[in-house]
């Protein structure tokens, strides 16, 4: 804040536009004034411009809209940053839509690698692959006969070449993991002769990573294979922050930070280079540890506790994966033990649930939550149910509402995943990547696996937040508001998945802003454009509420402001 003629004046005034405040009344103003890192006033052009002084930056919005900074409820920023070109730790195959493209990218990386050195990639493109199938070890062997190759296919699925399979000790006689207290359920995909193809589903991927970590001399971790030094991790965080800022994201939750990774996030925050506010959910490798080891770790943990940190980086709780692709990460006994013990110790959980709620799987999770609630109520603790794909049963909605559990939806992941589910349904059934049910059509299967019934959740009284699960899918900077779009439109690569579940644009904005702030106990700090809150704002190229549907995805993020500081400006070169 500046002093002009003896009075305090704002640093910036944005005027001549539509300030979509997302306050309690969903009010829309003409202008907003910013001083230091805070919003100081919101109102009419005349009122806000009267506050300006000689040193105030005045921006004429020319009718464009300003929204609160978007918040992504579910990301893995460091993992995503490793695949950035400027970091160079992984091969970026996230946009490669054919096996030929994937192999070409890996071939280039192999040329730069030493024999025997791991070549790892980002997640595969989550829409349909043009070949109608996934790559296999034979494909990968053609470009990498002497280097182990690791393609990420979602959170814990992996596709590897023959050398990597041999290093994991997985062959024709290796049984599928059947789910114990220390190893998830999973599936080793095999050809017609029973020989592994290189595609390892959930627990099978965990089984292989255990063997690889022993060879690498590394301890198990929640998600990724390779572990990187702190400087590489910091560069990865900053690279992903630049991408998030370009998409108008001013805050996010990292879903599964290791204790070792905390230092990199703290270093970035202290450096003053951070452009995105981080709420970190600690992740324990529950699929590799016994109940006893996990509970002892929770009891003896002496590092920074939940709520520790500041407005830039803080610890927000624990991430717990209950299911992945329909395979149990934990046994029901283990799940209930962890949830109850975590609740006793005051931890807040983000629980990764099952796709769809047909059958009894969701009931197992709800039973565990209710058992913990019976001991110490969960109300007001803001636990979350992550993804919630296909969560359509009103009875389940009511049970979650009574517990006060937040629905952490991922509409943008559903946008891409629905396309793969429709286009490659038979392939995915054969690989046991989706449950088989001959009574369902491919569309009904897709709704079960990827449906986001947002209207029903809101009408049931559930608080809903929005996010992506990047790098499971990358942000599309040509369409930076794709997440908002699919939240209110129900549009996906498979068409309108649940047209009856559409919501208004204002409701979608609230889901991606104020609701996300509430989920991290920060609704008093961010999520809406109100005096006293952090000046986290996004200037768009048009009217976010009234632009025709056909033009919505053409909206650009002209400027992203975090704490009163411009962290991204649009240019045709960066678009």
Summarize this, please?
The protein has 575 residues and is α/β, with parallel strands linked by helices.
Commentary on this structure:
It contains 20 helices and 30 strands. The protein has 575 residues and is an alpha/beta fold.
Our Rg estimate from Cα atoms comes to 24 Å
Shape: globular
Number of strands: 30
Please report the number of helical segments.
Answer: 20
Topology:
Layout: E1 2-4, E2 7-9, E3 12-15, E4 18-20, E5 28-29, E6 31-35, E7 38-43, H1 45-51, E8 57-60, E9 65-68, E10 70-75, H2 77-82, H3 99-112, E11 119-123, H4 137-143, E12 149-152, E13 158-160, H5 162-168, E14 178-180, E15 183-190, E16 196-202, H6 203-216, H7 230-246, E17 249-257, H8 262-271, E18 277-283, H9 291-300, E19 313-321, E20 323-324, E21 327-328, H10 332-344, E22 349-352, H11 361-375, E23 384-387, H12 394-403, E24 406-409, H13 411-423, H14 425-430, H15 442-450, H16 454-459, E25 464-465, H17 482-489, E26 491-492, E27 495-496, H18 505-512, H19 514-519, E28 537-540, H20 549-552, E29 557-562, E30 565-569
Parallel strand pairs: 3-8, 4-9, 10-17, 11-12, 17-18, 18-19, 19-22, 22-23, 23-24, 24-25
Antiparallel strand pairs: 1-2, 3-6, 4-5, 6-7, 9-28, 12-13, 13-16, 14-15, 15-16, 20-21, 26-27, 28-29, 29-30
Helix pairs in contact: 5-6, 7-8, 9-10, 10-11, 11-12, 13-15, 17-18
What are the salient characteristics of this protein?
575 residues; alpha/beta; eight-stranded parallel β-sheet; six-stranded mixed β-sheet; 20 helices; 30 strands
């Amino acid at each position: 804040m500046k002093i002009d003629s003896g009075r305090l004046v704002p640093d910036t005034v944005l005027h001549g536009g539509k300030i979509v405040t997302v306050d309690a009344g969903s009010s829309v103003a003409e202008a907003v004034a910013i001083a230091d890192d805070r919003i100081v006033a919101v109102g009419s052009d005349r009122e806000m411009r009267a506050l300006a002084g000689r040193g105030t930056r005045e921006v004429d919005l020319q009718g464009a809209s300003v929204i609160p900074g978007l918040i992504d409820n579910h990301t893995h920023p460091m993992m995503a940053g490793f695949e950035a070109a400027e970091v160079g730790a992984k091969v970026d195959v996230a946009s490669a839509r054919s096996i030929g493209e994937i192999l070409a990218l890996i071939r280039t990386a192999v040329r730069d690698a030493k024999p025997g050195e791991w070549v790892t990639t980002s997640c595969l493109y989550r829409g349909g692959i043009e070949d109608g199938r996934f790559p296999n070890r034979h494909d990968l062997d053609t470009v990498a006969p002497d280097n182990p190759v690791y393609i990420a296919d979602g959170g814990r699925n992996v596709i590897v070449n023959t050398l990597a399979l041999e290093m994991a000790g997985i062959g024709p006689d290796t049984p599928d993991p059947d789910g114990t207290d220390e190893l998830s359920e999973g599936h080793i995909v095999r050809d017609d002769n029973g020989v592994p193809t290189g595609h390892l589903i959930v627990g099978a991927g965990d089984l292989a990573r255990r063997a690889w970590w022993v060879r690498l001399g590394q301890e198990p971790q929640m998600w990724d294979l390779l572990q990187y030094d702190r400087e590489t991790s910091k560069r990865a965080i900053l690279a992903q922050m630049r991408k998030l800022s370009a998409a108008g994201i001013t805050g996010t939750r990292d879903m599964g930070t290791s204790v070792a990774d905390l230092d990199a996030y703290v270093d970035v925050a202290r450096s003053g280079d951070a452009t995105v506010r981080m709420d970190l959910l600690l992740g324990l490798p529950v699929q590799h540890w016994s109940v006893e080891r996990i509970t002892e770790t929770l009891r003896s943990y002496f590092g920074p506790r939940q709520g520790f940190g500041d407005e830039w980086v803080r610890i927000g709780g624990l991430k717990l994966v209950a299911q992945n692709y329909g395979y149990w990460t934990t046994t029901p006994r283990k799940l209930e033990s962890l949830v109850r013990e975590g609740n006793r110790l005051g931890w807040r959980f983000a629980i990764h649930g099952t796709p769809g709620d047909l059958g009894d799987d969701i009931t197992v999770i709800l039973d565990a939550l209710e058992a913990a609630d019976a001991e110490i109520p969960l109300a007001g603790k803001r636990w979350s149910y992550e993804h919630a794909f296909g969560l359509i049963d009103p009875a389940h909605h009511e049970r979650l509402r009574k517990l006060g559990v937040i629905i952490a939806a991922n509409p943008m992941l559903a946008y891409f995943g629905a396309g793969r589910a429709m286009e490659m349904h038979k392939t995915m059934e054969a690989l046991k990547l989706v449950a088989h049910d001959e009574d369902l059509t491919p569309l009904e299967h897709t709704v079960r696996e990827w449906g986001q019934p947002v209207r029903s959740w809101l009408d049931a009284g559930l608080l809903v937040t929005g996010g992506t699960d990047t790098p499971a899918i990358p942000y599309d900077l040509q369409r930076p508001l794709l997440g908002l779009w699919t939240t209110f439109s129900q549009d996906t690569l498979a068409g309108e998945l649940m047209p009856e579940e559409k919501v208004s644009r204002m409701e979608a904005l609230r889901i991606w802003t104020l609701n996300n702030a509430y989920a991290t106990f920060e609704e008093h700090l961010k999520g809406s454009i109100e005096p006293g809150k952090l000046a986290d704002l996004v200037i768009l190229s048009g009217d976010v509420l009234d632009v025709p549907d056909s033009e919505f995805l053409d909206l650009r993020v002209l400027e992203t402001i975090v704490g009163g500081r411009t962290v991204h400006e649009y240019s045709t070169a960066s678009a």
